[in-house]
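Question thread 4412

I'm putting together a teaching handout and wanted feedback from people who do this every day. The idea is simple: show students a protein as raw sequence, then show them the structure tokens that encode its fold, then repeat with a second protein so they can compare. Below is the first pair exactly as I plan to print it.
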Amino acid sequence: MSQSKKEVSVSAYKALGLKVKKLEENTKDLRSEGRKLRKRIKSLESSREGWKGKAVSRQEKCKIQEKKFLRQTKTIKPKRHHYPIWLITLVVNLQIYCHCSYGNIRKVLELLQKD
């Protein structure tokens, strides 16, 4: 009876040894996969930061250009006209989008002049 117990225990130890080896291999695979994923995350984060920086710089450039344009449109007068561009565009937009008559446009401008 002691021999059968030894045989069972030896076979059990061999089975456990195989399980341990499989788990160790699985652990190595998971660790290498984890390393690859961490590298991929770092590369994606750096790429995102690069794109984000480019977008921020583009937005700043757009804001600067927009400010320049607004300053220019307030002061620029087209050739052979007495009124600034913003006033001409206001009158044209009132005519096109609001369907105001020329008399009503005059009244609107008079109201704006009072304020």
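The second pair follows. I'd like the answer to focus on this one:
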Amino acid sequence: MTTADIAAMPVAEKLKLMEALWDSLCTTTDMGVESPPWHEAALKQAKDELAAGTAHFVDWAEAKDGLRGNSRA
């Protein structure tokens, strides 16, 4: 399957393909890929903030805006 084949697929089929890929990745125990060190640090920070009761949650729209560099004042 090529990139052009995927581009020609209907959205519903692309989503099914993505789900199949994620399922395959989730069942693979040794992919030979390690998470970067910053990822472990970010997970630890989130866990610590949850335990301390200082975690700040935002809705998905606000999170996407923040990732895009937009602000919702």
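Top answer:
Good format. For the second protein you could add a caption like this: The chain has one domain: 3-27+36-67. The chain has a mean pLDDT of 90.
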